Amino acid sequence: MLRLWKWYQNCLSTHPVKTQVISSGLIWGVGDIAAQTVTHSTANRSQHRTHAVNKELRISWRRVATTTLFGLGFVGPVGHFWYQGLDRVMRLRLKLQPNSFHFVSAKVAADSIIFGPLDLLIFFSYMGFSTGKTSSQVVESVRRDFLPAFALEGGIWPVVQVANFRYVPVQYQLLYVNFFCLLDSCFLSWVEQQQDAPWKQWFRDLLTLKEQKEQR
Questions:
Q1: I need a surface site. Which of 10, 64, 71, 83 has the fewest CB within 10 A?
Q2: Taking every pair of C-alpha atoms in the chain, what is the biggest distance, in angstroms?
């Protein structure tokens, strides 16, 4: 394991972008396999309550490939330049002391307000189009899934990122995040599986009520 870590460090120092892209793709692919397993297990428990026949787990390798491409094409390159650029802005432009309270807080705020929502929006849109949905169907899926996912993740990712920005060197921050994405991909798959669950309807009703108040 130590030899593997040293090999990764060497690759990261020699080819930083390429290494982040490949590692992100691999981790997201593994995360989707885990997500499909969790989703299958959840569905089987629901079928057991209704006395339906449990289905055998069959991994959708097409979906694994699709998710891997998301890691390769978006998370890897965009995440690399996001964390590097964010660090430079905080240190060089805003002149914040590294690892200080204001430094970490500003990073967490920027990540939660900018990168987090963008990542969710692109993920749900990309996964929708990759399954053959039309533009209107993708819009409806995003409206259904984005707000609940954003609200629930909003209570988790800031805590994860506090530790990330405080203790993890910037070159390893995307790798740190990607390992948490193993769990996150399971969560996002579960959110997508819930379809029109009552708790999702509550979020949509809350958003509709807010829009109505703003129009008055």
A1: 10
A2: 64
